[in-house]
Specification:
Elements (H helix, E strand, L loop, with lengths): L5 E8 L3 H12 L1 H8 L1 E9 L5 E3 L6 H6 L19 H7 L4 E4 L10 H10 L3 E4 L2 H18 L3 E2 L11 H7 L5 E7 L2 H11 L4 H10 L8 H4 L2 H14 L10 E2 L6 H10 L2 E12 L2 E12 L12 E7 L4 E6 L4 H17 L3
Helix pairs in contact: 1-13, 5-6, 6-11, 8-9
């Protein structure tokens, strides 16, 4: 049967927790892809920040690489072909049809935007879970993808694997989003709900860092940059606005927020870091900041690592998307769902 299947070549730029979870999911869903699309896949390239890179156009041994673990691990022994000294070389030589980009978030969008641009120019479809390049370079990257006749997909940039962009794109035809708001950062939401119970800011932050939930630089979470990047993407992709992260009015949380959190609890209210976008004339405005909420507000009920996004629309009134305590498995599923969306689109 395998001989009758079409082949698709995949490359992974970034092979941390999300990339590894995605590779495991591909293995688990291989038979499903056979049945659904008459398609088999192979990973022809993996590039990492700390464990070198490998290319094999015949397909890398995915299971062996996953079993090798993370410590003292190098991909060099799996590499076949000419030497590859940079991520740009990797993109040009990997022989992939689709590049999955999951490098570390930076509010500048770089260097990920450079790699995505290189892949699109080379005729590769690109799927990313990296909000930085999408927030900062949304219009130029989507335009480049159209010009090259390839797809640029980014479901995993907001709310992990919960369907946000695919939901609107596929199931809300002709719908205008008037405004949206929600809780989009798991790290700060966990810290706030822990402080409600008496924990210190530092103790709660240490936990999310230890669990690998916080960004590599946790200041991007607590200063509101992560949420600003996400609301920027929502504004540009769903509301037709132009606001980039630096245009978002932004206030984060700190140890001092704990006093406000406990005072709010005594009044039977809750403080959450709320992201909002709304229309003002022809512009779409975004802002991030702590808000004191009534106990019956849907956002007040979102605790721990959970997220929520509420869309106010002209067709369905209000729609809420809730994601309970997401993990890297949900982000990996976003990459997989974008791959499936890509396969289902007419080429």
């Amino acid at each position: 049967m395998t001989e009758d299947l079409q082949q698709i070549n995949l490359a992974l730029l970034g092979f941390g927790s999300v990339g590894r979870a995605f590779a495991r999911l591909l293995l688990l869903r291989r038979d499903w892809m056979h049945r659904e699309f008459g398609l088999d896949w192979k990973i022809t390239g993996i590039a990492t920040q700390n464990h070198s890179m490998a290319i094999d156009h015949n397909g890398l041994p995915t299971m062996r690489i996953l079993r090798a673990g993370k410590r003292d691990f190098s991909l060099d022994r799996f590499h076949q072909g000419p030497a590859c000294s940079s991520n740009t070389d990797f993109i040009r030589q990997c022989g992939a049809d689709v590049l999955f980009e999951t490098s570390v978030f930076d509010p500048s969008g770089e260097p990920a935007a450079t790699y995505i641009r290189e892949a699109l120019r080379a005729g590769l479809h690109v799927v990313t879970a990296n909000k930085g390049p999408v927030a900062v370079h949304f219009r130029s990257l989507t335009r480049l993808a159209r010009q090259r006749g390839v797809q640029f997909l980014y479901e995993g940039t907001v709310m992990d694997g919960a369907p946000v962009f695919n939901l609107v794109r596929q199931t809300l035809p002709s719908t205008r989003i008037r405004s949206l708001h929600g809780i989009l950062n798991s790290t700060t939401n966990y810290i706030l709900t822990q402080m409600e119970q008496g924990a210190t800011f530092e103790a709660a932050l240490r936990y999310v860092q230890k669990q690998g939930i916080a960004e590599a630089n946790p200041a991007f979470d607590i200063d509101g940059w992560d949420a600003a990047a996400k609301i920027s993407i929502l504004i540009q992709a769903l509301m037709g606005g132009t606001a980039k992260p630096e245009d978002i009015k932004r206030e984060g949380i700190s140890e001092n927020t704990g006093r406000l959190v406990r005072a709010a609890v005594r009044r039977d209210r809750r403080i959450r870091l709320v992201a909002r976008a709304y229309r003002k004339g022809r512009k779409v405005i975004g802002k991030i900041g702590p808000e004191e909420l009534e106990i019956f507000d849907p956002l007040a009920a979102i605790r721990g690592l959970s997220n929520i996004l509420i869309l106010n629309t002209d067709t369905m009134r209000e729609l809420a998307i809730i994601e309970n305590n997401p993990t890297v498995e949900q982000t990996a599923f976003a990459l997989f769902s974008d791959l499936v969306a890509l396969l289902r689109r007419p080429q």
